[in-house]
Amino acid sequence: MSPEQIVSIVMFVILLVIVIGGVHLAFALMFIGLFFGLIFQGASFLPIAVLQTFDVMESEVMIAVPLFVFMGTILERTGITEKVYQNLYEWFGPVRGGLAIATIITCMIFAACTGVIAATVTAMTLIAVPAMLKRKYDKGLASGVVCAGGSLGILIPPSVMLVMYGPMANLSVAKLFAAALFPGLLLSALYLIYIVVRCWLDPKAAPAIPREERPPYNWTLVKKSVYIMVPTVILIAAVLGSIMAGVASPTEASGVGAFFALLLAAFYHELTFKNVRAAAYDTLIVTAMVCFIILGAGIFNAVFLYLGGGTLVANLLIGLPFGKWFVLFVMMFILFIGGFFISWQALLFIVVPVFLPVVTKLGFDQLWFGMLVCVNLQMSFLTPPFAYAIFFLKGSAPPEITTWDIYWGVIPFVILQAVGLFMCVVWPDIILWLPRVTLGAGGR
Amino acid sequence: MKWIQYIDRISEWTGTAAAWLVLPLTLLVTYEVVMRNFFNQPSNWGYDVFWMLYSLSFMIGGAYTLLRKGHVRIDIVYNVMPKRMQLIFDIVVYAVFFLFVTIVFTWAGIQFAADAWVSGEHLSTSTWKFPSAPIKTVIPVGFFLLGLQSLAELIRCLSNLRKGGPKA
């Protein structure tokens, strides 16, 4: 181990300590990167750092980040989430666990419209949680469903996580989108199966709406469903379909998608100055947050790799006993444990870059591994103390839901996510089949 | 504390301008897609204009994002600190981390942009040649605004600490 490699490890440890301590992620990355870069490369590091910045600015695929976020925030402002949920509520209410099922399906639909989770979890907490509590659903089940369902937003494409993952791992974002579809649907299916089985075993956890209060199944309901569902579904199909068929780049699809979201808002009479302005502000904050982290990660990794930290960790991991599947297990376990304490952005940009060369050396498929990471990071949204989905839920949940209700409630869903991850490892075609048939073999 | 208010106002204004850029970006990307696919007339300026709008937006919007506390931090340790400790911690974060990063980047960015202005460098990804200096100037400007807002946050924490109150 060379002295530079020891420094690189020190650098990594300092970064982890200050990030967990509470320094803003983007600025911790930039600070440590600049500090060690200036020490070891002198003033010649400054142009390198500025060029990293310019690289992020010039990135073609990153243009899709503000556009996908804008599409999602516009849709959110139109109140469409509530309409869709109300509609599904009427369809599924008479079934045991029906409101939980309606919640998961609403979340799936909006996961395919947005690339982040904050909006979906907050909206569902305000809409679905009170409805479920009113029907005497188990509090843990109600919170678990919203947290797990809402987190799908960042797995099911379009997803900001995938747009960030692509350039970092040198993979095509379109392929990542195609690869993410089935794992996303698999997790949703597992959630739905769990709800049905749980309610069958324990009817008190999620009672059906009593017969006399049920809304009637009739033509009005069907017509309402068409009015609410069809425009949204067309939007999703057009945006995702064009990317996965290779007709449009993610950037083009995101721009057209955002434009259609504006049209949809006009269709529902919600295209007001106030709504567009609020959506634009939300979009700016998410975009700037994401871009500054990417910028910081680029600078940090430039120094970390220059000092040879990457090879050191790679050699350590490859040197592990019991073969390559054990190495994969260790990497996934590190991400799982990390998910309790640090955010997905930190895991993605501090930990994952160290793994990538190992993956290549062991002969694993990069696209497949990238998807395993994204499925794995789903757990990080639900595992306290640092869990975004729980933060957003707690931020707007009614006071009778305690923190412990939420913690107990998410456990089954974390287990389901682990099961989903395991299935993706055992049957790699869950991930690789769709991108192979639509966009051809290979990761780029 | 007029100072802080002025800086906050600057970040509000630049943030508003940066936020609205997403609208022309949306419309231009849509226009380009329609022209290319339905009229077979792709532009030679499309991609370059898109990335300039996007990067102008997030670079200038960094300061506004700081004002709105939009930069991600992990607050599990921070939240269990006593209020006074939190203020001291924030002072260290802004004085050491934010100011160091923004000052270094502003300075390095000025040199980067100055080179482009002096040499009159033109860039191109297609047949459309554009001067690179204006967009390169965005780097020092963005980091300068971010540094200014960091300074405002720092002063805000200091004055709260002196008053002994935890009020924001």
List keywords for this structure.
heterodimer, A: 444 residues, mainly alpha, B: 168 residues, two-stranded antiparallel ribbon, 2 strands
Structure notes:
The complex is a heterodimer of chains A (444) and B (168). Chain A is mainly α and 444 residues long. Helices cover 77% and strands 0% of the residues of chain A. Chain A has 20 helices and no strands. Chain A has helices spanning 3-21, 25-41, 45-58, 64-77, 80-92, 98-111, 118-134, 139-151, 160-169, 173-201, 219-244, 250-267, 273-306, 309-318, 324-341, 344-362, 366-380, 388-396, 403-426, 429-439. In chain A, helix 10 crosses helix 17. The longest helix of chain A has 34 residues, at 273-306. The radius of gyration of chain A is 22 Å and the shape is globular. The model of chain A has no long low-confidence stretch (mean pLDDT 86). With 168 residues, chain B is mainly α. Chain B is 75% helix and 2% strand. Chain B contains five helices and two strands. Chain B has helices at residues 2-20, 22-38, 46-67, 83-119, 133-163; strands at 122-123, 130-131. A two-stranded antiparallel ribbon of chain B has the order 1-2. In chain B, a hairpin with a 6-residue loop joins strand 1 and strand 2 (130-131). The longest helix of chain B has 37 residues, at 83-119. Chain B is elongated and about 65 Å long. Chain B starts with a helix and ends in a 5-residue tail after the last helix. The mean pLDDT of chain B is 86. At the A-B interface, helix 1, helix 2, helix 3, helix 4 and helix 12 of A face helix 1, helix 2, helix 3, helix 4 and helix 5 of B.
State the gist of this model.
By secondary structure, chain A is an all-alpha fold.
List the helices and strands and how they pair.
The complex is a heterodimer of chains A (444) and B (168).
Chain A: H1 3-21, H2 25-41, H3 45-58, H4 64-77, H5 80-92, H6 98-111, H7 118-134, H8 139-151, H9 160-169, H10 173-201, H11 219-244, H12 250-267, H13 273-306, H14 309-318, H15 324-341, H16 344-362, H17 366-380, H18 388-396, H19 403-426, H20 429-439
Helix pairs in contact in A: 1-2, 2-13, 3-13, 4-12, 4-13, 5-6, 5-11, 6-7, 6-8, 6-10, 7-8, 7-18, 8-19, 9-16, 10-17, 10-19, 10-20, 11-12, 13-16, 14-16, 15-16, 15-17, 16-17, 17-19
Chain B: H1 2-20, H2 22-38, H3 46-67, H4 83-119, E1 122-123, E2 130-131, H5 133-163
Antiparallel strand pairs in B: 1-2
